[in-house]
Amino acid sequence: MKNLLMLLFSTMFLVTQACTNGKTENNEAENTAKTEIAKPAKAEENKGGVITLSKQDFLTKVWNYESTPDKWVYNGDKPSIIDFYADWCRPCKIAGPILEELAIEYKDDIYVYKIDTEKERELAAAFGIQSIPAFLLIPKEGQPQMSAGIARTPEETKEMFRKIIEEFLLKKQ
């Protein structure tokens, strides 16, 4: 029994070390690539596509909750969707490319933003994000709504977002 436990712990240790080392090297390469490519775009320069937001970008482009904490005041000039995601989240990896397509398709009508919950913990906490993917749906006028999760398939997820955009954000019937 003692030998079995020792074997089990040794195996778990080796597996853990193998996973950690691979992940660390991958993250270093990934972080270098992100530093070089993923600089947040300004909405005015955006030619369609998802815009990455930092806390400062959020305060400027969406809502300055520090100056008006008790009242929602949207700073944008058109409706928007904010995707709260993390790189390790599998459903987030499904939603990301779909939102990218829709951001290009609806580039004249809405903004699509994304916020990395691992890097922008204060923003995630401000909206009570406890599970991801989570989406903040912001109409041009009125109160925003939160939505969480995706549909069963990528096709259904795209249709879900299209319906949200058309019916809630753009108020088309």
Question: What keyword list fits this structure?
Answer:
about 15% strand, Glutaredoxin, disordered N terminus, 5 helices, single chain, alpha/beta, globular, about 170 residues
Q: Indicate the low-confidence ranges by residue numbers.
A: 1-45
Instruction: Give me the Rg, rounded.
Output: 20 Å
Note the gap between the termini: 68 Å
Number of domains: 2
CATH topology of the largest domain: Glutaredoxin
Largest sheet: 5 strands, mixed
Overall pLDDT confidence: 81
CATH class identity of the largest domain: Alpha Beta
User: Strands of the largest sheet, in order across it?
Assistant: 1-3-2-4-5
The helix/strand series, from N terminus to C terminus, equals HEHEHEHEEH
CATH homologous superfamily heading of the largest domain: Glutaredoxin
Shape: globular
Query: What is the helical fraction, as a range of percent?
Result: 40-55%
